[in-house]
Amino acid sequence: MTAAAAAAALTALLGMTALLGAHARRSACTTSDLRVASRGVSPWWNASAVGGEYISAAAFLGTAGLVLAYGADMLWLPVAATAGYVLLLAFVSAPLRRSGAYTVSDFAEWRLGSPAVRRIVTCCVCCIGWFYLLPQFQGAGVTLRVLTGAPVWAGWAVVVAVTFPLVGSGGGMRSITSVQAVQFWVKLAVVAVSAAALLGAWKLHGAPTPVGDGPPRFDRTTRVHVRTDVAVTVPVPVTVTAQGRLDGVRRRGEAVSLTEGPHTIGRETEVVFPEGAAVPHADRLPLQAHDAWATPFGRDEDHELFGTYSALLGVLLGTMGLPHILMRFYTNGCGSAARRTAALIPVLLALFYVFPTVYAALGRIYAPELLMTGDTDAAVLLLPQRMAPGPAGALLTGLITAGAFAAFISTSCGLAVAIAGTIAQGVRRRSGATAFRAGVVLALGAPLVLLPRIGPQSAAALVTTALCVSACTLCPLLVLGIWWRGLTAAGAATGLLLGAGAAVTAGIVRLLHGAGTGWTAALLTAPALIVVPAAFTAMVAVSLLTRHRVPRGTDRALRKLHLPEDAAAH
Questions:
Q1: CA neighbours within 13 Å on the CB side: how many for 175?
Q2: I need a labelling partner for 557 at 20 to 30 A (CA). Which of 50, 72, 225, 368 fits?
Q3: Comparing C-alpha atoms, which of 299, 276, 277, 297 is closest to residue 289?
Q4: Which residue blocks in 330-458 are alpha helix, DSSP H?
Q5: Structural contact between residues 189 and 355, judged by C-beta atoms closer than 8 angstroms
């Protein structure tokens, strides 16, 4: 029943998406339509579209998974993501719109007069976009696997099969604006209605608390199926029944006593835990008592304070440089409209972010085995059937499936447009729609090469990596390029290369080889606290050393950025 409901909801969502895209494509006939929707999008509709593409796999699945695993500390991430739009409103949105550029690469060349800086920015945009696409594909694969048993690659295929024709078949930005705006309200309605229904079921179950003494415990006899090899820590000795490889020994359904401490479980192994048993935790997740989980800084981990502040800084500043979000402000008719758009976005995001904590707390009660398998992103998907078995749970599962794929598709569309538009403008500027569609192929194809090599990853961790690259590259460029007359091409190039080199290297090493332990893990996971100041410092220092090379048209460019359009024209 669950698989049928998920398939029906996905079919309905894809049908709605196709109709919206087809309707918008009929009016999209120019290059301006493809890239910036002819600059005719209203602030309210544009803010809805930004919300639609920003509420991605990380927001829909990953935030609840992070709070489930790590506790109250993770609430800083949605706070930082929303607060990032306040900085965007104050420092970037209106000036960037007044520049008249189509893309961030266009802005860089217009402001600094350097094709070399433009090419570096194009590479940065591609890296950010590809890192951000990874969790969309990963989340789609997890969703279909959990709900229907389909292979992970089937989810990737669905996202690509919908995104490519929607973006590349003639609609471009005009087409996806309607899709993303409608899908934001679909996602908000889905997450709100489902949360309200699950809270009602929780109340009927006696309102058990997710906060108490000791680690979480199974509230019933629970069969846990482990899909990949996992190392776990058992907090309290327990006797289980195992079918598969446990601690390197093949088990055939016999009882096994697990002592307190580390153990290994092989792939495709099933372990049955008795009611009341403490939940083992995957080694990569912290083993927390309920009270520590609900308390900020309740974890006892190495370099926790550095990691929290570094991730917070990366998300906060990274939001200012996301290319698919920045591109949205070019679709407004004027700088004041762009500012109104940026002001509306935090309100819409705040409405959405009320709900992931609800799913995390309920997952702590009704799906604690996810802490053992490490598949915490599945909490939102599993809760309906756990809490309301039968038709009601199937209906809620269908709603959540529609909301999840709306998140994957709308964000993927925005990223594909941003990457394709940047590539098309920079490589073959006059080739129009053909170069744009080639850029879409490259945008969607590159992450598929990396996905099979990285294994299971948290959606929120993948998005945090993209935001870190953005914070270390495009954020310094935009802030200094808009607000400091002394920025030179040499300074911008030095800061971009330093920031991109450090952040991208850290991200790839962590994805392919793991984060390790100690300071190595802290720096690979969240390097923004060191790399962002270094990138700013490099841009300023090299610009001061090359102050004689400030572009001649800088004063005129700054007037255009900061004066109203009618005043700047004189």
A1: 29
A2: 50
A3: 299
A4: 335-353, 356-366, 370-373, 379-387, 391-427, 433-454
A5: no
Asked whether 130 and 520 are in contact (CB, 8 A), the reply is: no
> Can you tell me the distance from the alpha carbon of 308 to that of 398, in angstroms, rounded to the nearest whole number?
35
Q: What is the DSSP string of 203-267?
A: HHTT---S--SSS-B-SS-EEEEE-S-EEEEESS-EEEEEEEEETTEEEEEEEEEEPSEEEEE-T
- Alpha carbon 39 to chain centroid distance? 26
Q: How far apart are CA 303 and CA 521, in angstroms?
A: 9
Q: Cα–Cα distance between 374 and 286 in angstroms, integer?
A: 11
Q: SS3 string of 436-495?
A: HHHHHHHHHHHHHHHHHHHCCCCHHHHHHHHHHHHHHCHHHHHHHHHHCCCCCHHHHHHH
Token pair in block for residue 381: 């998907």
Q: What is the pLDDT of residue 33?
A: 47
pLDDT tens digits for range 340-387:
887 888 888 888 888 888 898 898 888 888 888 888 888 888 898 888
Q: Rounded to whole angstroms, how far apart are CA atoms 316 and 33?
A: 31
**pLDDT for res 482:** 94
- Whether 97 and 412 have beta carbons less than 8 Å apart is answered as no
Through-space distance between the first and last CA atoms of the chain, rounded to whole angstroms: 66
